[in-house]
Amino acid sequence: MIEITFWSEGRFMRYCVDTKTGNKLSALGFGCMRLPSSALGSVNVETSEKLILQALEAGINYFDTAYLYRGNEEALGAIIKRNNIRDRMFIATKLPHASVKSAADIERYFETSLKRLQTNRIDYYLIHNVVNLEQWQCLCALGIEEWITKRKSDGSINAIGFSFHGPQHEFASLLDAYNWDFCQIQYNYADENYQAGRSGLEEAYSRGIPVFIMEPLLGGKLADGLPKAASDLFLEAEAAHSGVAVKDSSRVDVSVAWALRWLWNQSGVTMVLSGMNSAEQIANNVRVAKESTPNMLTETELATFRSVEKIFRESYRIPCTGCNYCMPCPKDINIPGCFASYNTSYVADRISGAIGYFMCAGALGHNPHYASDCIECGKCAKHCPQGIAIPNELKKVRRRLQIPGAKPIMSLVSKMRM
Ligand code: SF4
Ligand code: SF4
């Protein structure tokens, strides 16, 4: 059920009623995983605070973090406390189930999240990154169902759900395995039939389970990573949609707007999470959220998505979203950086990709780490929600981007600079 709420000052946000809890959730949620961070990965609390307050002011009331996002729960907790905004927001965080070996671990991870977030309740608690029914059954054997019942009755958890990155058939089994309050899936126009996909969305909807969407922009690739031919199609669609000429400089905002409209066009979508890390991104996404409604897209507009998706697929070879779940690598290889450079070598050109590759390898520093340093230990691949065979894909990166002779030249240049 969709409800429109107008703000007294003339601003407004669109809200969806979560049918399981009755909560009124903003159609756009704030994904905190991509909060502004330093090069070493620590969250920049001051910059993040401004963004979170801006989002709240614009009517966003759902903020998603996770135990595993380094420093993220702590940063969000500090911002909430400093601004006394806990009662204006719903907080979602996640249990790192792959590290749970006992019932005591479940309790310990949850208590740690409460402490980091400086709160006594989690509004939406998710089992993080479930890929199959067996994982849930292992947690059941440790007594998680009884634990959830206890935590819901003492009020420290309001709604329980899971985030999913497995194959479609496992998703349906998981939906039926417990009385879930919600679920969270990766979904966007490039992933319509990947993981849970459209059929998963529809299955959850038909069971009355609210669906929250993550990776609406595929880690930003559907924003500034679209090949020009694809974003040209969105510029044309935008001009037809708005009836005015569209500036080339708004190419990224327009691509984002269409990616979000594709999701909000579908009735089964309760909320779309976006990892926004600038004031402009928040403003653009809020504008689209408040204008979008189910079934708003025309047949011509839907056909545009099919054309864009085709161009995108032909350009992107490795479906890495840059989530960093595979890091750190014991050989210090920048895995997402390698894959981003490889994809760039197809979207733009091979030289641009190679430059990106040598930069992400730290080729001009003291101690570079190349794709060829991989020892195939396999530690990374088991954490990848996209199921990427990382060691094999790194071999492709090496063959395409590690131009023979470039490594010793880089090493020489590096020594001359010191
Ligand atoms: S398989 Fe290679 S890339 Fe992955 S963690 Fe091991 S060394 Fe690093
Ligand atoms: S390789 Fe997989 S785990 Fe690593 S950043 Fe990419 S999508 Fe995430």
How does this structure look, described?
It is a single chain. The protein has 418 residues and is an alpha/beta fold. It folds into two domains: 2-314, Alpha-Beta Barrel (TIM Barrel); 335-417, no CATH class. It has 15 helices and eleven strands. It has an eight-stranded parallel β-barrel with strand order 4-5-6-7-8-9-10-11, surrounded by six helices. Strands 1-2-3 form a three-stranded antiparallel beta sheet, covered by helices on one side. β9, α7 (197-206) and β10 (211-214) form a beta-alpha-beta unit. The mean pLDDT is 92. Residues 320-326, 335-336, 339, 383-384, 386, 388, 390 line the site of one iron/sulfur cluster.
Largest sheet: 8 strands, parallel, barrel
Classified by CATH, the class of the largest domain is Alpha Beta
**H and E order:** EEEEHEHEHEHHEHEHEHHEHHHHHH
- Helix residue percentage: 40-55%
Are there runs of 5+ residues with pLDDT below 50, and where?
none
- Distance from N terminus to C terminus (CA atoms, Å) equals 63 Å
Total DSSP E strands: 11
Mean residue pLDDT: 92
Strand content: 5-15%
Shape: globular
List the bound ligands: iron/sulfur cluster
Radius of gyration: 22 Å
